[in-house]
């Protein structure tokens, strides 16, 4: 993933609490290879009528160019499916602004360059009222942790490690491999002190497998 | 001295800690399933192997067919992809037809892969289930799964510690699922966000391992990525003799070590909540979030009596669920039932449902999907399958089935299902499906009457465990 530090785009509000990952991408789409793109699955069952026609009043259909999503508390709760983040990213979103996020969703987001920007309930209330169902211009400065949405100021909280990761586009796997020696030492110590934590070794040693 | 269970588990896995506070943790067990294909694809793209195939176990569950062959070519392909990934990397797979197959959070503990003191990861949010053994178990996303596959470690910031104490004793017909829904209703679907939840108190100590797993399983529905119960003799008795549990050679050493895990009497928690078990009644959900739950004796909330923000949400939920404000919960008629999932498809759950259904007829159709092939065999040995089929319910194979509707088992649009699963999200059981969550005994009661029902009167004169 590539890093970023500043984004200027279009914000739209999804005026709901508890937007869970089953809403973000219904399970039936999850057998699709990522290469096909997950954008069209985003919030699919809210966005379309039962017969598949788009709901013209749904925010994502009002502003298909939006890159900043504003929503209410507990955004991304539920399943660990990273596909929920893929759907947002593939649909062009870079930032979700909400008062709180599901823990797993937030780390998945950061792993894919999507910023989970945590703001106060009041701030979200203000943006939603101000946008009034329409799209509005917005800007986000990742380094400063600030910006604006439809002319209103934005201040967001973000874990320091996550901020670094988003800015630099770091991949943990590459970073972790620098700790290879420490990992090997830990493994050896654990195998000595708690051999039962290695089930195959235990089985090979004549256990009751 | 005053360490919590979380502190003890955490410190035992830290390899290194970064300036920003994130720790690199050693992963003792990594469980993969069909959904892990993104992660296998990521390590393939980097040309990396699975570094610890002996600590990695695969299970066919999310797409597992419950009746014969996979429903579609797509579903078959998902299972085949897992097969070939496991084969390629030398990972043990509990495949279709294997007596060890089952839902990952049922099969893992059953096989003794889940032990106290371990760190367990799986690309599934209900990995919190394994914390019932006093393990540090949490769900991760695909990028993290790829990281664990490639390094057998995971970066994680230590969560805050929260303790939910359930004092007293549960009434008859009330169980772990009711405790879970009761606390989530009280604290909200994000009540434990950022926290690892330790369940304590007499009512929790009194639960079987099955009940503790149900409780820890639902932690994520309250926003907690981790749920845990300190290990005790109930834990050790459950584990002894399981295929992958420590054998005679080091059982005593393992138990001695596990005895050191529990929170000290003077341990401090960042958040403490206490509930009185005797005040918990059988609970059902009425809305589209697990926090929208009430004792079954109550009525559907009236949005006009709620504060503005809650009213909007309640109106939307009632609209989706097709319910009227003020309606008695017990007047809600259902179209079908589902007994299954990693929350409530263990042997005790099936026994609890069978105790209600014995000698009675279900008024609606329904599916009973045991949590694993092992649970299925055990239930059949006890004759529980006969009770379900005699009542008119369908007895099928093990898998996630109608919990997530990925394998073709789903609830049709507009239909109402009383379900032992964990999520009443819109469309979870199928587009437009209406889900009411409750315990297995409560689902059985709903099947018998065709509407949401207080199970307690139906249990009178019957020998049961909730
Ligand atoms: S039964 Fe449901 S909640 Fe459990 S692992 Fe399967 S899909 Fe997830």
How many beta-strand elements of chain B? 19
Gross morphology of chain A is: globular
Topology-level CATH name of the largest domain in chain B: Aconitase, domain 3
Distance between the termini of chain B: 37 Å
Helical region count of chain B? 15
Q: Judging by the overall fold, what is the CATH architecture of the largest domain in chain A?
A: Alpha-Beta Barrel
Q: Would you identify the regions of chain A where 5 or more consecutive residues have pLDDT less than 50?
A: 204-209
**Residue fraction in strands of chain A:** 15-25%
Q: Structural class of chain A, please?
A: alpha/beta
Helix content of chain A: 25-40%
Order of helices and strands of chain A: EHHHEHEHEHEEEHHHH
Query: Span between N and C termini of chain A?
Result: 43 Å
* Tally of contiguous helical segments of chain A: 10
Name the structural class of chain B.
alpha/beta
CATH-level-4 superfamily name of the largest domain in chain B: Aconitase, domain 3
**What count of domains describes the coordinates of chain B?**
2
Give the SSE layout.
The complex is a heterodimer of chains A (209) and B (466).
Chain A: E1 6-14, H1 21-24, H2 44-47, H3 59-62, E2 68-71, H4 83-90, E3 95-98, H5 103-110, E4 115-118, H6 121-131, E5 136-141, E6 146-149, E7 152-155, H7 160-168, H8 172-176, H9 180-193, H10 199-204
Parallel strand pairs in A: 1-2, 2-3, 3-4
Antiparallel strand pairs in A: 1-5, 5-6, 6-7
Chain B: H1 5-11, E1 14-17, E2 22-26, E3 29-32, H2 37-46, E4 56-59, H3 73-89, E5 92-94, H4 104-110, E6 119-122, E7 136-139, H5 142-151, E8 153-157, E9 160-167, H6 176-187, E10 195-200, H7 202-205, H8 209-217, E11 226-228, H9 233-239, H10 251-258, E12 271-276, E13 283-285, E14 293-295, H11 308-321, E15 336-339, H12 347-357, E16 366-368, H13 373-382, H14 384-391, E17 394-395, E18 416-419, E19 434-437, H15 440-449
Parallel strand pairs in B: 3-4, 3-6, 4-5, 6-7, 9-10, 9-12, 10-11, 15-16, 15-18, 16-17, 18-19
Antiparallel strand pairs in B: 1-2, 2-8, 13-14
Helix pairs in contact in B: 2-5, 6-8, 12-14, 12-15
The complex binds iron/sulfur cluster (SF4).
């Amino acid at each position: 993933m590539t890093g970023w530090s500043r984004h200027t785009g279009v914000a739209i509000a999804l005026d709901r609490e508890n937007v869970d990952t089953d809403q973000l991408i219904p399970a039936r789409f999850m057998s699709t290879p990522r290469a096909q793109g997950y954008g069209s699955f985003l919030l699919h069952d809210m966005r379309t009528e039962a017969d598949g026609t788009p709901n013209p009043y749904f925010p994502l259909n009002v502003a298909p160019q939006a890159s900043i999503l504003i929503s209410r508390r507990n955004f991304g709760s539920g399943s660990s499916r990273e596909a929920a983040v893929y759907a947002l990213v593939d649909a062009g979103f870079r930032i979700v602004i909400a008062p709180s996020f599901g823990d797993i969703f937030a780390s998945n987001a950061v792993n894919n360059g999507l910023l989970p920007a945590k703001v106060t309930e009041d701030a979200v209330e203000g943006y939603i009222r101000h946008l009034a169902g329409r799209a509005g211009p917005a800007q986000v400065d990742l380094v400063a942790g600030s910006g604006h949405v439809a002319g209103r100021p934005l201040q967001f909280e973000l874990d320091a490690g996550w901020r670094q990761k988003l800015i630099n586009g770091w991949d943990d796997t590459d970073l972790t491999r620098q700790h290879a020696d420490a990992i090997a030492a830990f493994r050896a110590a654990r195998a000595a002190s708690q051999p039962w934590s290695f089930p195959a070794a235990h089985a090979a040693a004549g256990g009751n497998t | 001295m005053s360490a919590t269970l979380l502190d003890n588990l955490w410190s035992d896995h830290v390899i290194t800690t970064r300036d920003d506070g994130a720790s690199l943790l050693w992963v003792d067990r990594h469980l993969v399933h069909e959904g892990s294909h993104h992660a296998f694809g990521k390590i393939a793209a980097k040309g990396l192997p699975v570094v610890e195939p002996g600590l990695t176990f695969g299970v066919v569950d999310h797409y597992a067919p419950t009746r014969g062959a996979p429903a579609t070519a797509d579903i078959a392909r998902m299972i085949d992809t897992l097969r070939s990934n496991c084969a390629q990397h030398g990972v043990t797979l509990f495949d279709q037809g294997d007596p060890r197959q089952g839902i990952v959070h049922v099969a893992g503990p059953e096989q003794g892969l889940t032990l106290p003191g371990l760190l367990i990861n799986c690309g599934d949010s209900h990995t919190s289930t394994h914390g019932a053994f006093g393990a540090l178990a949490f769900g991760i996303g695909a990028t993290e799964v790829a990281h664990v596959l490639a390094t057998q470690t995971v970066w994680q910031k230590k969560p805050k510690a929260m303790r939910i104490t359930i004092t007293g004793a549960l009434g008859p017909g009330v169980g772990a699922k009711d405790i879970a829904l009761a606390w989530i209703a009280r604290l909200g679907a994000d009540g434990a966000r950022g926290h690892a939840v330790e369940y304590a108190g007499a009512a929790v100590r009194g639960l079987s391992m099955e009940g503790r797993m149900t409780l820890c399983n639902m932690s994520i529905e309250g926003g907690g990525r981790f749920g845990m119960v300190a290990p005790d003799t109930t834990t050790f008795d459950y584990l002894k003799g399981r295929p992958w549990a420590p054998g005679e050679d080091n059982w005593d050493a393992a138990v001695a070590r596990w005895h050191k895990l529990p929170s000290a009497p003077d341990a401090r928690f960042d958040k403490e909540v206490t509930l009185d078990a005797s005040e918990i009644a059988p609970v059902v959900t009425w809305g589209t979030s697990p926090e929208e739950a009430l004792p079954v004796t109550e009525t559907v909330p009236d949005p006009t009596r709620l504060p503005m923000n809650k009213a909007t949400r309640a109106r939307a939920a009632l609209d989706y669920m097709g319910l009227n404000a003020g309606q008695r919960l017990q007047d809600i008629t259902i179209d079908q039932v589902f007994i299954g999932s990693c929350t409530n498809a263990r042997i005790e759950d099936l026994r609890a449902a069978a105790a209600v259904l014995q000698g009675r007829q279900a008024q609606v159709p329904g599916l009973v999907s045991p949590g694993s092939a092992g649970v299925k065999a055990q239930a059949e040995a006890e004759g529980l399958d006969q009770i379900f089929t005699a009542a008119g319910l369908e007895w099928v194979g093990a898998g996630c089935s109608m919990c997530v509707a990925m394998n073709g088992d789903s609830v049709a649009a507009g239909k109402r299902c009383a379900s032992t699963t964990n999520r009443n999200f819109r469309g979870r059981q199928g587009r437009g499906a209406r889900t009411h969550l409750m315990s297995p005994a409560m689902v059985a009661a709903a099947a018998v009457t065709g509407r949401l029902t207080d199970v307690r009167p139906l249990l009178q004169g019957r020998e049961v465990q909730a």
